[in-house]
Amino acid sequence: MKENQAFFLAIFIFISVSLFFSGCNKTDNDKKIPLENTTEVVSVQDINKVKIQKENIFELSDLEQNTLQLTMTKKDIIFSQITQPIVIIHFFHTEDSPIFSEIPYLIDLQNAYKKDVFVLGVLMQENNSSKQGLLKLNNLKANYFISYSKSNRLLFNNVLKNFYLPPSTSTPMTLLYKNGTFMNHYEGAVPIEMLKHTIKQLLKKV
User: Helix/strand/coil (H, E, C) string of the chain?
Assistant: First the structure.
C-alpha cells in the first residue's frame, strides 16, 4: 500500500514540475496586444514591422496631382506603379548651377527610351523659395514625372542614411535602378553620354 502511495506521489510531483517549467518558457514576445477600437490581436513583432514599413514608404506627387509610391529597402526601391525596367531618380534644386542644362538632356532621354526608362525628378525646393527658378523649370515643359511633394526631403534624407552619405551632400544627385535594384549613383552633373552608355549596357541584360 505504501509503495502505491509513493508511486502516485512521484507521478504527481513530476507532472506539477513539468507544468511549471512549460509556463516559464513563454516570453513577453509571445504576448498579444489588442489594438484600440478593434478585436484584432497583433504581436509586438507585427507592430514593429508596421513602423518600419511606414518609415520607408514615400508618396510623391506632381503638379497635376498624379502620385507615385516608392518603398525603400536599404539601397533598393520597390516601384510598384512603374513598368519600365530602368528608373532614373534625379534629385535637384532650381538653384543648382547645372540643372537647366541637365533637364533638356533628361527630356531627350525620356523621349528616346519611353518603353524602357522612367525618369523621376525630385525637386528639393522648399516653400517655393525661388519663384523665378520654378517658373523657368515650368517653361522647360519636362515630359517626365517631377515630384513637388513634401516627402521629397524625407526621401532624400533616407537615401543619405542608407547610402552612408554625409548630411552635407548636395544636389544634383542621380540614382540609377534596374528592376528596383540599385545600380549606381552620381553626385553633381552627369554627362548625358555616360547615362546613355550605362542604360544601353543595362538593357542588354534585361
Answer: CHHHHHHHHHHHHHHHHHHHHHHHCCCHHHCEEECCCCCCEEEHHHHHHHHHHHHCEEEEECCCCCEEEEEEECCEEEECCCCCCEEEEEEECCCCCCHHHHHHHHHHHHHHCCCCEEEEEEECCCCCCCHHHHHHHHHCCCCCEEECCCHHHHHHHHHHHHCCCCCCCCCCEEEEEECCEEEEEEECCCCHHHHHHHHHHHHHCC
Query: For the CA atoms of 68, 77, 173, 170, what is the dihedral angle to 10 degrees?
Result: 90
For cell 500500500, the residue is 1
Strand partners, 175: 89, 185
Which of 203, 195, 206 lies closest to 106, judged by CA?
Answer: 195
Q: What is the pTM of this model?
A: 0.72
pLDDT in tens, 67-119: 999 999 989 999 999 999 999 999 998 887 788 889 999 999 999 999 999 99
Instruction: Give the residue among 144, 173, 146 at the shortest CA–CA distance from 157.
Output: 173
Q: How far apart are CA 33 and CA 23, in angstroms?
A: 19
